[in-house]
Amino acid sequence: MHVRTLALGGLAALALVVGTVTPAAARASGDTITLLCDSGKVVTAVVVGNGEWTPALFTDSNQVAVPIAFDGLSLIATDADTGAPLADFFDQTVITKNAQAKGRVTDHCVFSSSFVAYNDPDFSGANVRYTFSGGVTVTLKK
């Protein structure tokens, strides 16, 4: 598997877009991510779905963060057992959705998330920790 494909696939899982589930249902069935926003908000959100533009539902309210741009995306792969670096991908490109904020409040947030792939065939069966991070500009829906 190519590192760029893996990075985009992982970022798609972390990406944010509109959902219709309640906070309780989302917590039970989605991937949790913490967003540190320029507005000073620190928000825990749940992403239910796997699309690049999938919304995130805040866990403490029914507010939804809808992504309109991503920037500074990074994928770092390290050996989970030794910490040795295996691969590093960074993309400075700003990826924008063909949409506008339409008068809604926007905020820029950063995120980071990691997981371990055990016996990863892309790295000769090593246990690999993948860390995804980057920035996202979101519109906030109530």
List the helices and strands and how they pair.
Elements: H1 3-14, H2 23-29, E1 31-37, E2 42-47, E3 56-58, E4 64-79, E5 85-91, E6 95-96, E7 106-120, E8 126-141
Antiparallel strand pairs: 1-2, 1-7, 2-3, 3-4, 4-5, 4-6, 4-8, 7-8
Walkthrough of the structure:
The protein is mainly β and 142 residues long. It has one domain. It has two helices and eight strands; from the N terminus they run ααββββββββ. It has helices at 3-14, 23-29; strands at residues 31-37, 42-47, 56-58, 64-79, 85-91, 95-96, 106-120, 126-141. The chain has a six-stranded antiparallel barrel. The longest helix is centred in the first third of the chain and has 12 residues, at 3-14. It is elongated.
Tell me the strand percentage band: over 45%
Radius of gyration: 16 Å
Mean pLDDT: 78
Which regions contain 5 or more consecutive residues with pLDDT less than 50?
Answer: 1-28
Strand order of the largest sheet: 1-2-3-4-8-7
User: How many E strands?
Assistant: 8
Cα shape: elongated
What is the gist of this entry?
It is built from two helices and eight strands; from the N terminus they run ααββββββββ. It has 142 residues and is mainly β.
